[in-house]
Structures are given as structure tokens and as C-alpha cells.
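C-alpha cells incoming
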């Protein structure tokens, strides 16, 4: 990432608070530049349309120009407290709900195995896991945007992808712009998806069906 030390100024022309990014017009070059909340020098007020920012010109990993090391030119706003949109997200609640979901999911899986009905229940399990995984991504994204130190463990997000929630995770990554730029996370995610696909393919195969049949205690 190349960076120019020459300070520049620009005015915010677009801001998406939920996702924590926006665009500004550089007053020196009239260039439209992307910027992200994580690149502010200090945690102050949230940007709004029309705010004037001082920044350093840099480039992202694709070589595109972006604004970094941002700060408000308005001293009052620079020292202002974060707005209500950046209030702390209670991730303890999300982790508690995760525990209940895992318990219920495991119970439903065991019942489906005992009755030999897993192939018929699989679509329901996938829908439930995907919806819940998307919600977890939302909570973690909100915590990231608000600048919280506490975050959901990446292992938990990958676990829910593995048990069937990867479609929801993929949708969340694209729609919320969350975790998709982290190479290590993406590498692990696609390995999880591959492992999940191979497991489902085996369960639906002849050998898998025979295995499910041996586990069934109450099937016909």
C-alpha cells in the first residue's frame, strides 16, 4: 500500500453508517475517494454528508486511490463523542443465544438421525443455520463499525458455516461487506464450505444412507 504524506482535505459526499464506509471529494484534485471508519486517526464523531475531512492519500491492495489517516477539520467534531449509531453492541447476548441455538440444533439433528429422517430435515437445518449465521455476522459487523474491542470469535462464525449456515455467511459477507477482505478467514471459510459439501454428499450417497439407516432406532 503506497501512501503520500502530503495532507489533503475533502468533503464527504456519501456515507453508509451501517457498513462504516463512504466517499469524499478531494478539494485539491476533485477526485472521488473511498474511505472507511477504521482509518480515522482517533475515535470521534461519526462522519456525515458535507463534513470536511483532512486525510492522507493512499492506495488499497488493488492499487486504487483511497483516503486514510482521516480526521475532522472541525475541532469541535473531532473531540465529539461517538453518536448513538456507534453504541456498544452486546455480544454477550449473541454468544448466549448461540449456545441455545447449538443445543436446539444438536437436539434436532439427533432426533432426525434416530428416526432416519435426516435427508428430509436437512433443508430445514440449512435454512435455520443460514438465518442464524447471517444474524451473527450482523452483530459482529455492528461491533466492528462501533470500534469495539470485543468481537465474536472467527472460529464460531466458521462453525456455524460448517453446520449448514455457509449460504447465510456468504450472503452476509457480500451484503454487509464483512470478513470478505481477510485472506486467512476467506481461505478457512472456503475450506469449511468444501468440507461441508463433501460431508453432505457422503450422507446422501449409498454408503451414507446405509450409515443413517444403522443409526435409526425408530424408523420403519
Amino acid at each position: 500500500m503506497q501512501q503520500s504524506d502530503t495532507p489533503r482535505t475533502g468533503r464527504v459526499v456519501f456515507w453508509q453508517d451501517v457498513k462504516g464506509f463512504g466517499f469524499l471529494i478531494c478539494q485539491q484534485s476533485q477526485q472521488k475517494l473511498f474511505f472507511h471508519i477504521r482509518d480515522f486517526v482517533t475515535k470521534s464523531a461519526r462522519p456525515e454528508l458535507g463534513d470536511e475531512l483532512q486525510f492522507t492519500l493512499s492506495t488499497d491492495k488493488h492499487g486504487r486511490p483511497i483516503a486514510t489517516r482521516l480526521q475532522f477539520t472541525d475541532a469541535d467534531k473531532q473531540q465529539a463523542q461517538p453518536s448513538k449509531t456507534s453504541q456498544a453492541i452486546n455480544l454477550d447476548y449473541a454468544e448466549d443465544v448461540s449456545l441455545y441455538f447449538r443445543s436446539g440444533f444438536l437436539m434436532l439433528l439427533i432426533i432426525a438421525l434416530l428416526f432416519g429422517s435426516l435427508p428430509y430435515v436437512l433443508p430445514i437445518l440449512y435454512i435455520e443455520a443460514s438465518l442464524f449465521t447471517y444474524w451473527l455476522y450482523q452483530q459482529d459487523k455492528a461491533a466492528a463499525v462501533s470500534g469495539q474491542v470485543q468481537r465474536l470469535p472467527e472460529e464460531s462464525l466458521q462453525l456455524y458455516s460448517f453446520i449448514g449456515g455457509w449460504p447465510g455467511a456468504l450472503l452476509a459477507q457480500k451484503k454487509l461487506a464483512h470478513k470478505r477482505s481477510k485472506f486467512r478467514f476467506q481461505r478457512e471459510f472456503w475450506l469449511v464450505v468444501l468440507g461441508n459439501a463433501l460431508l453432505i454428499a457422503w450422507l446422501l450417497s449409498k454408503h451414507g444412507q446405509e450409515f443413517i439407516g444403522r443409526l435409526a432406532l425408530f424408523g420403519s
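note: The beta strands are 3-16, 21-26, 32-36, 52-59, 65-72.
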